[in-house]
């Protein structure tokens, strides 16, 4: 039984995202959400969720890796508005899907890590007003046949 528990603990640790915080940067706890994508295919995932300004600001910064079906849901308000994300202090390449208040994905963009100074990091704006975004590993949306026009729903799990 001890061997089984040790093996389970090691597998769980290996499946989690690796985070390397610099000195002086405190860890942040995130909520979680069950997120469902519906279009040509239907796919449901359990993702971290950024619902406070502090959580949204940190996002996936300082991650050195992320499991293949892991990601983060960002809730940006209740009214659609244009937003832009950047990749400052983000170490892994990501896809971002912006969605509006009807739950329709309006954009999927590929984002590259930014090692430059803050002023030189590019932004990745939504082309239309949105209420949220989902960041996943680079290429995840294409690999899973999820595209602009598909729907997103979610249930917070806190």
UniProtKB/TrEMBL annotation:
Q: Which UniProt keywords apply?
A: Signal
- Asked whether the UniProt record includes Transcription regulation among its keywords, one would answer no
The record's listing under InterPro entries reads: DUF192, Saro_0823-like_sf
Q: Which domain of life is it from?
A: Bacteria
| Residues that span the membrane, as ranges | none
> A single Pfam family, by name?
DUF192
The residues the entry assigns to the signal sequence are 1-17
Does the keyword Transport belong to this entry? no
What's the protein called, per UniProt?
DUF192 domain-containing protein
